[in-house]
Amino acid sequence: MQKVCDALVDGLTRILGGKLYGIYMYGAAVFPDSGPVTDIDCHIIVKDSLSNRDREDISRLYGELAEDYPPLGGELDAWYILLSDAREKSPPLNQLKPGMRDKSWALHSAHIRAGSALHSAHIRAGRYITLFGSEPDDIFPVPSWEEITAALDHEIEYIKNNLNYPAYCVLNLCRIMYSFKERDVVVSKRFSGIRAIDRFPEWTSLIQSALRTYEGTNTPADESRLQVDMESFLEFALEYIDKCRSMG
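Given the sequence above, the corresponding structure tokens read:
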């Protein structure tokens, strides 16, 4: 992962030069309890819009990373965001893929600016790593709970439409249930799955199957259980989330 990140920084500084403001990694890679890292999530902040030439050069760089550092080099989930947009609360456009917006902006912003109204003061542990640039003190606005709820709802809709990835769906539902209950979105899916086993023991077997799949130690029995019980767990999770909403 360090080699991929170093090569990414070297490549982008060469391609973008003075346009590049900062590169901030978040997601599973920054959580000590996340288990195996299967991709690299980051926000790449630029001062000016990307040109078509910039996009072509970045695409070429991605191809080189995938070839030189498999498999992680081919699993970059990066959003290129204008500095001016990063200071706003509305979902920003992806400069690399015009037309796409980061619908989970409130969650990503909360990860990078962990603390504020979402947590007690003593939990101010920013879950991000600065790969390039200064610390993001003047960007990434602290999202309101309403904005975070909208982002969580977007993730719920994504889960509903992607039940063919049951392990991901189960663990992400565990994380979303935890987030609604505790009003804390800065947690890993693995942590949330382990916590859900304690809170919902009736779903222990299913969640353990999802965790084993996430860690690459799953068996055919795990795959079968995930396929059979996924929709029932989704129904349970949605009811639990609605209950948390009603409690304010």
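The mean pLDDT is 88. Try to locate this feature in the token string yourself.
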